[in-house]
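Q: Start with the shorter request: fold the first protein.
A: Done. Sequence, then structure:
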Amino acid sequence: MYKEISSKELEILTHNHADIELIDVREKKEWDQIRIPGAKLIPLSSIEFRIGDIDFNKPIYIFCRSGSRSGQVCQWLEGEGKTATNVAGSIEALYRDQSDIIEITAEFDPSYFN
């Protein structure tokens, strides 16, 4: 079973400038609205073809909109013999908590979370 952390724990890691690999598995149209600066966008739809883009020498944290797709990726990576941590609640929880680690763009539509 893969590990999981809360969005608050991710926020603390980011504020402490931890040397981590943040992977956003949402689609580009989602990323265009709201994102975590510095995270790599590797959509779930292309993860198996872009596994080489992930730096497994660092702790890996995977997120999406709510934590479901990122959980799928963590489970898949585990099956590939890799270790990754799912961010529970993901970008939705960071938005709800008004986190300062997210960037909201002019294209953002609040109905994205409905």
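Q: Next, the second protein, separately.
A: Sequence, then structure:
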Amino acid sequence: MSRDENHSVPEDHTLSSAVRALILGFFAIVLAVVSVSFAIHHMREGFESEYRKQFNLQLKALATNAMLVIDGDEIEADPVAAGMKYPAIINLMLPSPSENSFSQIDYGIFACYGQGTLAILHISDDQNLVYIETAINKWNNSNPEPYEIETKEKNSLLIPILNSQGVIVGLFEITGSHSSLRQYGDVLEGKLLLAVIVSALLGLLLFSVQYFVPKVLTLLRKREVNEE
């Protein structure tokens, strides 16, 4: 075996070791990014789930207080006057709106005629309410109970209003939307994941400079010496 062949064996071994180390480092970083991404998403889903749960409890408390105020006999006797009276009271129960809030609460009061035909007495925001798209028999039936609708972006309560004889004479809906929470979560999760990826790439680059590049330079110097 010649002198050049003797030197090429350790040189090739050193180079292949450096390449293997770089590849292993890359896969380790990819695994770390995936793990951190999963952890971030899991924490976010847990937070949003708890937020929706507490928000739903708040809506139910507001609905309970509102129904203590609303009188079905008054709505039946004079719906116009009731449509002016109750919003002034219910508005005082609602939390003050804030630019930093992730949720919005809207409500509607309706008089009910015939087979469930509704007349609007007051609505705060028609776009967020769900009474139009909800089947009448969900809340107007022989066993009138509050009907609850829950999605990832909304919580709604539709509560039949009864007169003193137990007849349904109206409907109260309160809906809380929290779509901005989902949007904020998407943005925040994206920023955190981007920060993790950038940090991982910088770590890989630093590893390459400290470990891989010096070995390559050493091999090049050895080859120059051998050629001389």
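Q: Describe the second briefly.
A: Residues 1-9 have pLDDT under 50 and may be disordered. Residues 3-43+183-227 form one domain.
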